[in-house]
Amino acid sequence: MNKLLLILTFISPLFLLGQVVSNPYFPSQNDYVTITYDASQGNQELVGFSEVFIHCGVITNLSNDLNDWQHVMGDWGNGNPDFLMTNISNDIYEFSFQIDEYFNLLPNEVVSHLVFVFSDSTGDYVGRTFNGDDIYLSITNDGFSAGFVSPNNETLVYSLESEFEIIGAASENCDLEILYEGDVITSGDLLSNTSLNFNAQDYGQGLHVFTLKAEIQELQIFDTLKIIIQPNNLLMSEPEGLEYGINFTGSNEVTFKVDAPNKDFIYVLGDFNDWEYDINYLMNKDPETQNFWLTIDQLDNQSEYRFQYSIGFEFLRIADVYAEKILDPYHDQYIPESNYPNLIEYPSGNVKDIVSVFQINDPFQYEWSSNDYSPPDKENLIIYELLIRDFLESQSYNDLIDTLDYIKYIGVNAIELMPISEFDGNNSWGYNPAFYFAPDKMYGSKNLLKEFIDECHQRDIAVIMDIALNHSFGSNPQVRMYFDEDIGEWGQPSPDNPWFNQYPRHDFNVGYDYNHESEKTKEFCKRVFKFWVEEYRIDGFRLDLSKGFTQNNTIGNIELWNAYDQSRINILNEYANHIWSNYPEKYFILEHFANNDEEQVLSNNGFLLWGNMHSDYTEASMGYGGDLSWGVYTSRGWGSPHLISYMESHDEERLMFNNINFGNSSSDYFIQMSNTSLARQELSFVFLIPIPGPKMIWQFGEMGYDYSINYCENGSISDDCRTAPKPVRWDYLINPNRVKLLKIVKALNFLKTEYEVFKTSDFNVNLSGNVKKINLYSPSENVCLVGNFGLQSQETSPDFPYSGTWYNYFEGTSLEVNDINMTLQLEAGEYLIFTDFETPTPDLSTVIQLEVNEGNTNNYDVRIFPNPTHDFLFIESEHEIENYEVFDLSGKKIISSNSSINILDCSTLIDGLYNIIVTLKNGQIVRKKLLVHG
Question: Are strands 183-188 and 157-158 parallel, antiparallel or unpaired?
Fold first, then answer.
């Protein structure tokens, strides 16, 4: 007689019960069933609640898929007593019903699963599986079922002192046996047995594999259960030379090293062990350093591997904080395929939260071209602050590379990227960081980021990375490893956290406050800086909230917060010197805003410091006075030009918005008129950029960006929308007055970077009245600037230092000065720059013509920007353009132009890829452009 052998695993990855048991264990849809819910299992959101409510449904032959609940029962968030479960004991709840009657099943409707979630009375806290899925219970309508039914949690790792029972069961009386290493340890006969139980602790520490055998008539069912009784840590010295994180220690092996003081044990779970707890993947512990480490070999060095650490009996799953790539199950789904093609999928099954990714051999290792690049001197920096999200519709490095010719065109020599490492979510300014070694995938791959930096360097543009190390956010593994969820509304780091303060030390903290006096924090931050310098060739860092790098508690005391703090200076010096010892040319820029005595010391130590002049430039631009003197480093008593003055950054209201909405006026001069507002922006730039020392421009400021910082996506203005996405307005380039402003900025940047007098330490400024002046002196070059910020025409002297021929820079004319006290009549808003040396006359036409960058490896003969667009494309070439044509991907001609006009109206095109054929005197160029409409 042949018996049918059916081997099944009752606790399957798809229907991982975790926290639900039924009585009977294998119900049919006609049974009266009691559901027992253990809130301490699964995602544990309902641990400690006195009232838990059931929400349930059925998956039937009428369901489209396993997410298609039928006959849903529950009253979400209303605390309906009809769905209140009985509280049996701590975190154990029961609820009973007759399945077919309770769900009012239709005739011939067949149930395959019961499906559950549980909640508190408000519906704010929801009990689900470990990885956040709904909870499924299989229904047995026909045939014989058997398997292990307890324990049914996801980890199956216990201490020797744990209290738990192993139960094997069947849907009807049968011969039952449970075996260990081939020996029967308990059994029951055919007449009376539907379940067996025993104690696994009797078998001691280690991995134990038990087999259930159920037999009835000609049918046998086998089930396997793996239990780990946690052994003591294997104490073993770690190999020399390991760094924390992922170490590639062989052609087919990696060694993980984790800093986890006072943690009991750590398992490594990943693709290499099917995400199962396996005693072979229990990390060793160094008896001296207390570091955890584990080597895994026999890996495919061409494959990407996903993994997590599971820590202690809390079974806290975390990614590696040092990982250079992570997967986020909550936000990666919103990353466009065009930005990050072929992103490895998030692992399914018994996995939740963020996972790490590594690859031993990257077949696409980036090859750098700009090996001889040297960044500009500190005092010569003109920085363009840029948030990729609000600069390009596509939010991609790929399109940012295509836009570099424009950025080069306006004359800046450095780009400061707002934070680009992985932060919580996708839609953010980036100041909520979590993983400091992993570039945010929303913008593209690590190689595209490297290509962007490489292309910048080929254009003599430095790349500065904005980084937030004052604080971090909740998905950071360093936060999660030592965290107390019961403190406050959201929880706080626990007192034993090696990196973070339990409570912030200053009022301006967001997220969780790093303790920068902790040696572990210092070690971590130094490694962050070194990584970006060496792996990505970053030219410098802007340290967000650098004033928070202190343990002095200033909560509630703004004067103490601003006051001189030697400990803060020492910490910043230690970080910078760590990099400067090997890379002295790298920039460290501080968003500090402390009292001047401290900033002066930091400046003397080589730091650059942000000089926020927004309010003064706003007052001046709007016609209400404004003293710009504090934007000059000598006015602060500093000996070095290390003050980065700016009138706009990501943090301030836009000058143009204020001009248009709140600008002053006289009888015939109205600043609130758009063109006058733009002219006032020109005047402001004239009295910002030429002042000796580094300067910064906020993106699109060169075109007079006029949307409020609090602009909402629905068109309203609200403080709640401060960090919300803002409109991308490349179409400003068809506005002649905005193009003029851009060209004024370009002309000022040209002066500052090409002539030594703009680096002079010999200068005078008079920046407090309506008429403002700047006079720059050197042995061979001298400059006089004068501008009228008032509302009326005014006579003034430029204060020429000597008589002779002076040149009007913007007009390209000369002026014979016979009297150094001679006066000129300036209209409201008028400005003049005189030099005693001849310069090229700036092009102030309304046409943008980009210069060719000979070092550009892409060797574009035609530049088309912005890419993508939703309104207009601008077509530029060093060769004469005869015409251009646009085709869809089927080859149909959409647009044809026989003109050399370089503005292409795309507003009538639908979303998609198009071929643009540009005919030049010397041939044709075919380019593909993605057109995106907002």
Answer: unpaired
